[in-house]
Amino acid sequence: MLKVQGLTQRYGSRVALDALSLSIARGDFVVLLGPNGAGKSTLFQVLTGLFAADEGDVEVAGLSMRSDARRALSHIGVVFQQQSLDLDLSIARNLQFHADLQGLPSHEARERIAFEAARFGLVADLQRSVRELSGGNRRKVELVRALLARPDLLLMDEATVGLDPQSRRDLIDGLRDEVRQRGVTVLWATHLVSEAEHADRVLVLHRGRLLASGTPAQVTSSLGGDTLEAAFLNATRQAG
């Protein structure tokens, strides 16, 4: 579903991504684990077309971001680290506006909004302004928005920052349902080891380079540590 080849991104003399290569299979729940400054957000900005990398290429569902970006991006949904909802509009109007941007027919948009709102427990709040919602429910709205176009690849960039443990768990559980039911591929960027412990696969990124890739157990073993957290901390400290 996603193939990154030799991706390099520089900011002046600083290298944010250093010839990064990785691939993700369809239907996998993959966590991109890295400390602050590892290059996670830069990678997501390239994956979503906000930046054109200095070198290398990205393929989404076999489509190159360099030569066929429009079709490649049509397969992607994203929840960015910074919230981007209109606080003064209701949940329903936020979602309908996004559906209109995606070109969804009105009847289909209404059906999808109702379905996803029910899945994430938002039906009773659809007419409330986003400003009135808790941080956890705002994130749920952003996730629903990202799912409206039925993406094949869902990108989550530090999506649980500021959320309480229950809201974090609800968000992760909702995504796992999406993986099971529709075969969506998820790439979840985080610096929280606890969010990586139950992933299908973990990618450890540090200073723009991939330090390890595999199941949580495989990454723990390859980096050397009794736990994933210990292995991650040791590896990033040594590589830093």
* Biggest beta sheet summary: 6 strands, mixed
Whole-number average pLDDT?
A: 92
> CATH superfamily of the largest domain, please?
P-loop containing nucleotide triphosphate hydrolases
> What strand line-up does the widest sheet have?
6-7-8-3-9-10
The counted number of beta strands is 10
What's the structural domain tally? 2
Q: Radius of gyration, Cα only, in angstroms?
A: 18 Å
- Provide the helix percentage: 25-40%
Total of helices? 8
| CATH second-level architecture of the largest domain | 3-Layer(aba) Sandwich
Distance between the termini: 31 Å
3D shape: globular
CATH fold name of the largest domain = Rossmann fold
* Uncertain spans: none
What does this structure look like?
By secondary structure, the chain is of the alpha/beta class. The protein has two domains: 162 residues, P-loop containing nucleotide triphosphate hydrolases (Rossmann fold), CATH 3.40.50; 64 residues. The chain is 37% helix and 25% strand. Strands 6-7-8-3-9-10 form a six-stranded mixed β-sheet, sandwiched between helices. Strands 2-1-4-5 form a four-stranded antiparallel β-sheet. β1 and β2 form a beta hairpin. α3 crosses α4 and α7 crosses α8. The relative contact order is 0.18. The model has no long low-confidence stretch (mean pLDDT 92).
